[in-house]
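Please, structure for the following, as tokens.
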Amino acid sequence: MAYLDLFWTFFKLGLFTFGGGYAMIGQLKDIVVEKKKWITEEELLEICAIAESTPGPVAINLSTCIGYRNKKLLGSIVSTIAVVLPSFIIIFIISLFLAAFMQNIYVQYAFIGINACVAFLIIKAGVEMFINLRKSWWQILLTLVVITLMILFELYNIDFSSIYLILIGAFLGVVIISIQKGKEEKEKEDVK
């Protein structure tokens, strides 16, 4: 029964989430953290970091990690299949009628509305994650710098991969935390 619940939960998420894994984070929080209590909010943040840093689509990585936390290997398989299955079915059906489907003016209007909703869901998830993170001055500064760079790159149409931003952030995190830990250890030694 637990596997059926896991399957059905991720099937619905896969069916009703437009925009991929980032748009799914808000719904995941509502369902797996608050309603089902499968994981804590802190664990969700950790899983989001893992899902982002591993290869593959974020939505699949999120479902796989949560399934594994809930029911180990079989849980990860069940949740991964469940989150992928709705997209597979929908794309298969659409592919049969693709030309006519994309020419339909109402479908085009629907995609415009879906894009606006997805943008909101991604921004909402990002803001919620930032609010729930433990913050220090350098994390806030780094976040502001990255947001500023992303806006400038977009405004000036500069081709700069987000992978480089992630790597730069990881490097700065290692350097700054190492410096902070070194200072803390030095202060402990000075106290002794």
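The longest helix spans residues 58-96. The chain has two domains: 1-133, 134-192.
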